[in-house]
Specification:
Length: about 350
């Protein structure tokens, strides 16, 4: 690990500009985007986005950043150099836009609307909404195969991918992928489409040419983010529930090792100039930068000494009645503690 600068609350996604030596991170709980210097490992600027920006896309030809702001139903467009807001596009009330896709060849940005079950198409130059594509419930992450002009939207609740034409905006079909597809990315050179199944700790591999399954990769808990190296040789998978990144050899489809990062890693990107891996850690508010991520690093830190030991005794008032409850009431009984995340 090279560095882990603190950025703010809930950094969910990262976009990288290796030439400009900048990374751009969407901090969902701060409603902001932070620019980070890749050489100094320090924040450069912070800009306000909409409410709960989850994904982020960098359009290099225009030098603009796009975030999908889930709780304000907007897409915010920022100047990547100056941090100035260019425009904020309204997607539709109650749409909950939570995923983005990018077709730089056709100058399109695509927004997956989770609650509406639709995909909004945006002209990346005119910054106008140019169409809506029907998807399914839980529409979010969008992968684009620019060579074929095909888009793939992961529908989390429906357990499917919606396939569409990125030029004509016509739906082309549906692929069943199983429960909880959370992230999808495409590598046309290797004819690979990767789909992270967050509920079962797997990554499904599909052929872009035929849509046929090529195999399934077992990773750690709750994979929610992925990126592939520029040469396509390695896939990095962010395991949100484990605080790790799985490193996968794409030639064999097997995991080679795991990298310990921050808490709740949301997504990742590659600095093509240095080969470093950048991981946005939603749970710890940091951006982890890993040197030579293709090499196994230090072993995972040992388990906390409290794991496996009896729970310490304590007493707290009941939230409904005010009555004092103690851990002695559940001694030698099985019970469930529910840690609930609002997202």
């Amino acid at each position: 690990m090279v560095a882990a600068p603190r950025l703010g609350a809930g950094p969910e996604a990262v976009a990288v500009d290796s030439t400009a030596r900048r990374a751009y991170v969407a901090c969902s709980r701060d409603n902001a985007v932070v620019s980070v210097d890749l050489d100094q490992f320090a924040p450069v600027w912070r800009a306000e986005a909409g409410k709960e920006p989850i994904p982020i896309v960098l359009d290099l030809p225009s030098g603009r950043l796009f975030t999908a702001d889930a709780r304000s139903d907007t897409v915010t467009v920022l100047n990547a150099d100056s941090a100035a807001r260019v425009v904020q596009l309204h997607i539709g009330q109650g749409a909950y836009p939570a995923g983005l896709g990018h077709d730089p060849e056709r100058r399109r940005i695509f927004c997956g609307n989770t609650a509406a079950g639709t995909i909004t198409a945006i002209d990346a130059d005119r910054l106008e909404v140019i169409g809506t594509i029907p998807a399914e419930l839980g529409a979010g992450s969008i992968a684009v195969d620019s060579e074929r002009g095909h888009g793939y939207c992961a529908n989390f609740m429906a357990g499917s991918l919606t396939v569409f034409d990125t030029e004509t905006l016509r739906p082309l079909g549906r692929i069943t992928v199983g429960e909880g597809p959370c992230k999808t990315i495409a590598d046309p050179r290797a004819d690979q489409l990767y789909v992270a199944g967050s509920l079962h700790g797997t990554v499904l591999r599909l052929s872009l040419a035929t849509a046929r399954p090529l195999g399934e990769i077992r990773v750690e808990r709750a994979p929610v983010g992925m990126c592939v190296t520029p040469d396509g040789s390695r896939l990095y998978v962010c395991n949100r529930g484990a605080g790790t990144v799985s490193v996968v050899d794409t030639a064999t489809g097997s995991e080679t090792h795991r990298i310990t990062v921050g808490n709740g890693p949301g997504d990742c990107g590659i600095d093509a100039a240095s080969g470093r891996l950048l991981v946005s850690n939603a749970g710890s508010g940091t951006l982890t930068m890993v040197d030579a991520p293709w090499l196994p690093g230090a072993a995972k830190p040992p388990t906390h000494p409290a794991v496996g030991r009896p729970i310490p005794q304590f007493a707290l008032p009941d939230a409904r009645t005010g009555e004092i409850r103690t851990t002695r009431e559940w001694a030698e009984k099985r019970y469930v503690i529910d840690f609930f995340a609002s997202w």
